[in-house]
Structures are given as C-alpha cells and as structure tokens.
Amino acid sequence: MAQTREQFEARLRQIGAERYHDLHPFHDRLHGGSCTPDQVRAWVINRYYYQHSIPMKDAAFMSRVESPDLRRAWRSRIEDHDGTAENEGGIRRWLRLAEAVGLEPDYVASCEGVLPATRFAVDAYVRFVREKTLLEAVAASLTELFAPKIHANRIQGLLKNYAFADDSSLSYFRNRLKEAPKDVAFGLSWVLDHADTQEKQDAAAKALVFKTDVLWAQLDALSAAYVEPARIPPGAWQPHEGLARQRKAS
C-alpha cells in the first residue's frame, strides 16, 4: 500500500539523514581544517568532474521529456551550471576555486587527473538518468534536499581554516544556497505527485539511495588515494601536476 504524501516525504528525508555524504569522514577533515593543501586540491579536481557532468546529466534527462512544462522547469539547472549572458555559471565559479587553491584551471577542466572511481561513479549517475524512468531520474536529484546544510558548513569551515577562502573562491557554494531551493521545491513536489503507488515510491526511494551512494563513493575514492596511507592509482592526479603558473615559478 502506498504511503501518504507526508509519509513518503519523511521516508525520503530519512534516507538523507542516514546516507548523505555530509556524514563522510573526509568532510570532517575538509571543513575542520585538517586537509593538507594537496588533499584540498585533489578534492577540487575530482569534484569538478561531478560538477561538469551535471549539465550533461540534465541534458540527457531533458532529451527524454515530452512535456514542455517539465523541460521549461528543468532548463534552469543547465543554465545554473553552464552559465548565461548574465550568469557566469557554477562551472566557471568552480574553476575560480581551483585557481585559488593553486591549480591551473585548464588542467582541472581537462579532467585528466580524475580518479578512476570518481569517473566510474559519476558516469554511472549520468547513465542512470539517461536510462531509468523519469521518476527515478528526478528522485535521484533529491540529494539537493540535503545540500544547503553542507554548503553552509563548508563556507564556514573553509573561511575559518584556509587562507585561499574568500568571497570569490567560495562563490560557487554561496550561489548554490540561492539556486538549490527552487530546484528542491520543484523536484520534491514532482516526485511526490508522481510516486502514487507503492511500486513507484519504492523505485524513487531506491533511486535516491543510489545517488547517495554515488556521492559517498567519490569521497571513499578520494580518501583512499590521498589520505595517509595515500595510494594514488595510475593516471590520477599527482601533487606535482597541474599547479598554477605562479606556483611553478615560486
């Protein structure tokens, strides 16, 4: 028997409370100031691969949507990341963060140093959205329900603990505090409207669990590669690579 709208929303929120990646130990290190400069750089490089893939994920979703109303509502997500004439977009803001932590933005944008596990996890998410039902694809995006808290904690922790942190380098997170609420409100309402049977509710909940696994797996890979004892896999970023020109000259 299907849960009520209120019961099902509570079920989705409980998934975040138990499984969202704000609980991962790497975020404790990052926000608490325990990461070395190279660990911060590794996080920036690998998280960029996720950021740069989000518009492709959303474009894959929109290519399957027949409803103009749904496409219109979803289109702003791509613009928020890719930018418009009036908005530089989240990807450019992330590359500004990359430069602030001492990386060459072109190197980060090339995705050459991304960990294999990061690539596999993010690509799996894009493929999930391309192949699963629209309900499952939208439900997977609902990790945004839990993002404002981690963005606020990240801004506070980075400003407190790292010299590179300022309004410019952290503009990605500040903008997501403004952009994410509208996406969350629409996505949650859409899922609650369309998950009207137990089977659909179970599928939507499973999709959200999958997405939390995608985010968690990225941090597991980062920790395994760059937190002592570091085990950097072949082809992944090495601390001497991709440094900004001013660092090479110093």
Automatic annotation (TrEMBL):
It holds the Pfam family TENA_THI-4. Residues 10-220 form the Thiaminase-2/PQQC domain. One of its GO terms (biological process) is pyrroloquinoline quinone biosynthetic process. Keywords: Oxidoreductase, PQQ biosynthesis. It is an enzyme of class 1 (oxidoreductase). Gene3D superfamilies: Heme oxygenase-like (1.20.910.10). The keyword Signal does not apply. The keyword Oxidoreductase applies. InterPro entries: Haem_Oase-like_multi-hlx, PqqC, PqqC-like, Thiaminase-2/PQQC. Its EC number is 1.3.3.11. GO terms for molecular function: pyrroloquinoline-quinone synthase activity. It catalyses: 6-(2-amino-2-carboxyethyl)-7,8-dioxo-1,2,3,4,7,8-hexahydroquinoline-2,4-dicarboxylate + 3 O2 = pyrroloquinoline quinone + 2 H2O2 + 2 H2O + H(+). Pathway: Cofactor biosynthesis; pyrroloquinoline quinone biosynthesis. NCBIfam families: PQQ_syn_pqqC (TIGR02111). Belongs to the PqqC family. Ring cyclization and eight-electron oxidation of 3a-(2-amino-2-carboxyethyl)-4,5-dioxo-4,5,6,7,8,9-hexahydroquinoline-7,9-dicarboxylic-acid to PQQ. This is Pyrroloquinoline-quinone synthase. The gene is pqqC.
